[in-house]
Amino acid sequence: MDYISLIFLSCALAMDAFAVSLCKGFSVKKLNLKHYFIVGIYFGGFQALMPAFGYIIGISFASFVASIDHWIAFILLGLIGLKMIKESFEGENCDTNANQFGFKIMLALAIATSIDALAVGVSFAFLDVNLLVSILLIGLITFLFCALALKIGNQFGVFLKNKAEFLGGAVLIVLGIKILIEHLFFNS
Description:
By secondary structure, this protein is mainly alpha-helical. It is about 80% helix and about 0% strand.
């Protein structure tokens, strides 16, 4: 996977955490540096760790599915993208836990927003991906997006939440199609 695709993938994966961070920013009267680090480390950390776990799972059965690996990546990215687009139309508001930054709440939110990254990690096992660079980029971009979302949510509210989820889903679908087309038509 080239670096441009990896950056787009990282941005798309960050969109769920971005949306949650918007809610958190909206719910806090006064942000301080601690809030930025909490959302950035939890969300960025889990977004970086989950693809590594997914890669380990995927690599364990990669030899069995080598002939259809491009289809698996296409289907996983497409399904995740469709799920994100569907969620963008659900119009849910920020929940009552938005103003809470404690361990249990943040851990649950970090895991929930990074499940997609686990599935993407499975597809990494079938692609030509530098895993270390990938997880560092995913984690860093998610950290930065969440810090930015916290500030935006605090200043302007959460009107961008659904648009971010829709955009993230669309990017994942496009990347899945790109992988499939490259393998079917441009691999020798």
